[in-house]
Amino acid sequence: MSAASAKNPWARLAVVAVWAVAFALVEATVVVYLRKLFGLQYGLAFVPRHFHYPRAYLGYEQAREAATMVMLLGVGFLAGRTWWQRLAFWLFAFGVWDIFYYVWLYACLRWPASPGTRDLLFLIPREWWAPVWQPVLASFALIVVALLILAKTRRD
Length: 156
Hints:
mainly alpha; two-stranded antiparallel sheet; elongated
């Protein structure tokens, strides 16, 4: 990236988007492995309706989720020049990452079967379950808010 484009928040936005899509693939791949391993250990092909995250692995998964948030915050901090831009880049990275997480899961597993498919979204501070369309819609909203902030702060 040239010095001129590094000053342009829209060029930085493109870099953040590429990073978020790649990071989503990493996260989706971890979930592919976890599903396969849990399938071997617990006899599960996919997450059943009454699944609860195995206690033996819960601390590790919560730490991975916390690290994911730190990495998303970090890219927002590095891409933004002002606090508003940092917030915008974090929101944007989170939204793109979350949407592409589901895109990659579908590419790898052909899951979720539909937007109404129930998913375990987070384990911090406890299990959060919802149909897939809810986090995807929230992620689109985060992207829109991020773009509005960047449009308002484009001279910074």
